[in-house]
Amino acid sequence: MVRAYKFLLRPTVRQEQALAGMLADHCSLYNGALQERRDAYRHASKTTVRYGGQSAQLKEIRAFDPGRQGRWSFSSQQATLRRLDRAFAAFFRRVKAGLTPGYPRFKGVGHFDTVVFPKDGDGCRWDSTPHDGQTRVRLQGVGHVRVHRHRPVRGRVKTIGVKREGRRWYVVLACDEVPAEPLPATGSTVGIDMGVTHFFTTSDGEHVANPRFVETMAKELAAAQQHLATFPRRTRRRTKKHRAAARKVAKLHAKIRRQRLDHHHKAANTLVTGHDVIAHEKLNTAGMTKSPAARPDPETPGGFLPNGAAAKAGLNRSILDAGWGLFLSILAQKAESAARRVIPVDARNTSRICPDCGHVAKENRLTQADFECTACGFTANADHVGALNVLSRAGLVLCDVA
């Protein structure tokens, strides 16, 4: 298996300055390579510049500017150029598919937060066997940086990335050949129904509460955003007070993100530990959170009819706050590591089918929480009914495989 490990770095003051300089110089390299591609296409008869040609210029760039570009790892600079090349490949792919192209943009120093070292030992070295009890990672141009390693690293370290999040620094290890750690069999199979009233409901009738992290911190976040909006546009990013206000907003969003991630890991771990097979709905969260299309008013030129956008916006916020997609991806990874099985099933009509008689009708769902079959009179919690139908469909999948 392939897994990633993320650990907090504890650099000294000088090391932190060197890390910031490394990001700034890689950002400058990225922007310079992007400018070269733009100029070549605009002024040189639409000439296309590719990664191979830009990578071949690195030796000259490093020799011309040894104080900045010359002190960093050659392979990490190649990885930055590959990052730009992937951005252009994605741009042309979207153009061919008829989607919004999204031409690659220049990066500000504050928005270029990651440097990747493609191979352990080439410009970087992960200390897998610390002698003094303190793990370190060696980075060219920075030195040996202390790492807060809170869990063991399995498998073989392939790439090492350095990432900045706010005022914190992290090292990200991408490892392959990670061995599975199977858990003892439980003989239990469960279906889960995702929701916003409850985070999910199991086929056993258990409701897991939805923490609603954004709603909990809504007042504090709104106050911070309102304070940030008070700065005139012409003075933004120029004053210390504006930068402090922006950091405040970013800090609150980072806290919400960490809380959500911690909740998802714990909930997924509970499911994986207690069940051999876990079934869930295939959810298209991007489509579910899409804004409704505008409805032009045929009687009023330039006017529009109500389309329920305001009500839909509240539901979209609740779905995005719950983070279903992130949770299901974490669940799949934990299940693979524990030799468990996760089965995604079709989500259509799972809350409208009677689990007792199989009758399908929109009228079966009385309210958000109540289910009553119009054919046989079966009553139950609507989310519990959805979880039972998910489990039933997973059983059909297992029978087909067998």
What key attributes describe this structure?
2 domains, alpha+beta, 7-stranded antiparallel sheet, 5-stranded mixed sheet, 43% helix, 19% strand, 402 residues
Question: Would you give an account of this structure?
Answer:
There is one protein chain. The chain has helices at 13-43, 51-56, 58-64, 74-97, 213-216, 218-229, 240-274, 285-288, 309-322, 324-337, 382-401; strands spanning 3-10, 114-117, 124-126, 136-139, 143-148, 156-165, 168-176, 189-194, 198-202, 207-209, 277-281, 295-296, 304-305, 341-345, 370-372, 379-381. The chain has a seven-stranded antiparallel sheet with strand order 2-6-7-1-5-4-3. The protein has a five-stranded mixed sheet with strand order 10-9-8-11-14, with helices on both faces. Strands 12-13 form a two-stranded antiparallel sheet. The protein has 402 residues and is α+β, with helices and mostly antiparallel strands. The protein has two domains: 3-176, no CATH class; 189-401, no CATH class. 43% of the residues lie in helices and 19% in strands.
